[in-house]
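Quick one:
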Amino acid sequence: MAWSILLVDDSRIVRAVMKRTLELAGVPVAALWEASGGEEALAVLERETVDLVFTDLMMPGMDGEALLGEMRRRGLVERIPVVVVSSAGGTPRERQLRASGARELLRKPFTPEEVLAVVQRVMQEVTA
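Output:
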C-alpha cells in the first residue's frame, strides 16, 4: 500500500532530504505534500487526504508542537499519525510529545532504515 505523506519543516533543504530519504528507504508514496509551517500544514490537511505527517518542532509561526495540539483539538491525530522529526528529545520530552498525540519521535540525523522502520511501525498501528 502506498501512503499520502505531508512533510512539515521550515527548511526547504530538510524537506528535500526527508523526501529523498523516503525514496531511499523504499517507502511507498502515493502523494507527497510539503508545508513550511503549521498554518500551511493545516491548510493541506483541510483539502487533501493525508495518511501520515512528519513535522519538525522548531518553526516560526505555528511550530510543530502547536500543530500537533491543533490537530489533536480537531480530532485529526486519532486518524492521521504524526511523527515528530527533531534533534530535541529526551525521555520527558518524548512523553510530553506522545501525550500531545505524536506516534513517534524521529531524531535528526536519521537514516533511511530508521525512517522505514518508523513508517512501518506507525502505519501498521493505524491499519491494524
